[in-house]
């Protein structure tokens, strides 16, 4: 069945402003159902967690439903879904907790393909523990990790391998399953950053071999909430910093302070939205199956548009694109001759095209590409609500920057 992008776009009130939202990799717009779910939660009355009255029980129900929704989205278990403000905060929290067991002689492996949120927390935690850090490089111009190098870096000294499921800069989807298999063979844990990958295709944490899988709902049509999915049995072995009276059970013990209950209702609605992308369900159907179908349909739609986007950019002499990996999300990263990335983005904004400029916090990768000191490049990322007119408008506006 063809992807009904007009139906999908109609679900997003913000898209009515006439802009081409090609900034989705930095955060997506929200469908009306998600906005209504957040507002509805507040409208019905919320209480703090664990009380004896209905408003409190409503909040606890919202939290439990949110864990189930994120588990269905990722193929994980609801009892292993840690909720929090965003991926960066949760990763710092887990790095501090895991590093309590590291010492001199231990090693951590990180990559130059990753967003800094899956690099710096590990470096800083390792430094405090006296553990060593090893970097996996990005092979250029492809822009991918090399399994052979990771096989050399990972050893019985390795305690943790941190790797992204997709680059937020150039879209590359590295061989995560191959890398986590190396980690596990060496007795190390694998922490997979799924923030950029999650909205762009079906996710299966078991298939990826992720001991921890981090994601952020605001990249897939939800509110600003982060989640880390892990095996509850593994979480049971860990002792995060926590307040004495706060819950001791898993996953609650990893969640510091009060959760944003109304936003969690929005996260569940966002997962339902992803589950609807392949078309209205003929019957109730298992949500996990509908999510997998929805994300597969979104991926096919995005990849079709991406061929047009990349083909158009590569045909322009004044444009340089970065990354050539065969498996990548629909994320274009490019520079325009004689314009800074900010100047190019400003021009595009006058044509009602939203793009991001800079290193997008992929600090190591921007350095490897030689773009760190020059303002990075322009990023145009497609998500499921983008259509052909968004791409055509971007290409026409970039063409105006020739000469
Ligand atoms: C790949 C990737 N990892 C991590 C992050 C950080 O996520 P958060 O904003 O939830 O901390 C981002 C945000 O852009 C990202 O794209």
Count of DSSP strands: 13
**How far is it from the N-terminal to the C-terminal residue, by CA?**
43 Å
Structural class: alpha/beta
Strand order of the largest sheet: 2-8-7-6-5-3-4
What overall form do the CA principal axes indicate? globular
Spatial extent as radius of gyration: 21 Å
Bound molecules: pyridoxal-5'-phosphate
Low-confidence stretches: none
Percent helix, as a range, is 25-40%
Strand count, sense and barrel status of the largest sheet are:
7 strands, mixed
Order of helices and strands: HEHHEHEHEHEHEHEEHHHEEHEEHEH
Rounded mean pLDDT is 97
Estimate what percentage of residues fall within beta strands: 5-15%
By DSSP (H or I, 4+ residues per run), the number of helices equals 14
Explain this structure.
The chain is an alpha/beta fold. The protein has helices at residues 5-10, 32-44, 54-74, 87-99, 120-129, 147-153, 176-185, 205-208, 232-236, 261-275, 287-314, 341-350, 363-368, 388-399; strands spanning 20-21, 81-84, 107-111, 132-136, 158-164, 189-193, 212-216, 226-230, 319-321, 331-336, 353-354, 356-358, 377-381. Helix 2 packs antiparallel against helix 10 (261-275) and helix 3 (54-74) packs parallel to helix 10. The protein has 14 helices and 13 strands. It is globular, with a radius of gyration of 21 Å. The longest helix has 28 residues, at 287-314. Strands 2-8-7-6-5-3-4 form a seven-stranded mixed beta sheet, with helices on both faces. The protein binds pyridoxal-5'-phosphate (PLP). Pyridoxal-5'-phosphate binds next to helix 4.
């Amino acid at each position: 069945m063809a992807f009904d992008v007009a139906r999908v776009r109609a679900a997003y009130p913000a898209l009515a402003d006439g802009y081409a939202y090609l900034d989705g990799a930095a955060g997506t717009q929200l469908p009306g159902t998600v906005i209504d779910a957040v507002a509805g939660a507040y409208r019905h009355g919320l209480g703090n967690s664990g009380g004896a009255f209905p408003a409190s029980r409503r909040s606890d129900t919202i939290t439990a439903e949110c864990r189930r929704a994120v588990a269905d989205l990722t193929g994980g278990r609801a009892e292993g879904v840690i909720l929090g403000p965003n991926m960066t905060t949760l990763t710092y929290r887990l790095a501090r907790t895991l590093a309590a067991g590291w010492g001199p002689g231990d090693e951590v492996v990180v990559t130059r393909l990753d967003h800094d949120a899956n690099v710096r927390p590990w470096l800083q935690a390792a430094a405090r523990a006296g553990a060593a850090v090893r970097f996996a490089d990005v092979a250029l111009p492809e822009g991918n990790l090399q399994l052979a190098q990771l096989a050399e870096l990972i050893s019985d000294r390795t305690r943790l391998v941190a790797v992204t499921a997709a680059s937020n800069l150039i879209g590359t989807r590295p061989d995560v399953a191959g890398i986590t298999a190396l980690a596990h063979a060496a007795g190390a844990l694998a922490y997979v950053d799924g923030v950029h990958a999650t909205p762009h295709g079906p996710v299966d944490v078991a298939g990826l071999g992720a001991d921890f899988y981090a994601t952020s709902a605001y990249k897939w049509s939800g509110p600003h909430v982060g989640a880390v999915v892990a095996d509850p049995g593994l979480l049971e072995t860990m002792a995060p910093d926590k307040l004495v009276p706060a819950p001791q059970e898993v996953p609650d013990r990893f969640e510091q302070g009060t959760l944003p209950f109304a936003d969690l209702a929005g996260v569940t609605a966002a997962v339902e939205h992803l589950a609807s992308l392949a078309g209205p369900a003929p019957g109730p159907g298992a949500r996990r199956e509908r999510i997998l179908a929805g994300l597969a349909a979104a991926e096919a739609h995005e990849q079709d548009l991406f061929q047009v986007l990349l083909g158009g950019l590569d045909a322009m002499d004044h444009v340089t694109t970065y990354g050539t990996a065969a498996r990548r999300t629909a994320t274009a990263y490019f520079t325009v001759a004689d314009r800074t990335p900010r100047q190019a983005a400003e021009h595009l904004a006058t044509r009602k095209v939203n793009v991001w400029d800079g290193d997008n916090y992929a600090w190591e990768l921007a350095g490897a590409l030689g773009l760190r000191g020059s303002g990075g490049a322009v990023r145009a990322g497609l998500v499921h609500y983008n259509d052909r007119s968004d791409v055509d408008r971007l290409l026409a506006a970039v063409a105006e920057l020739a000469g």
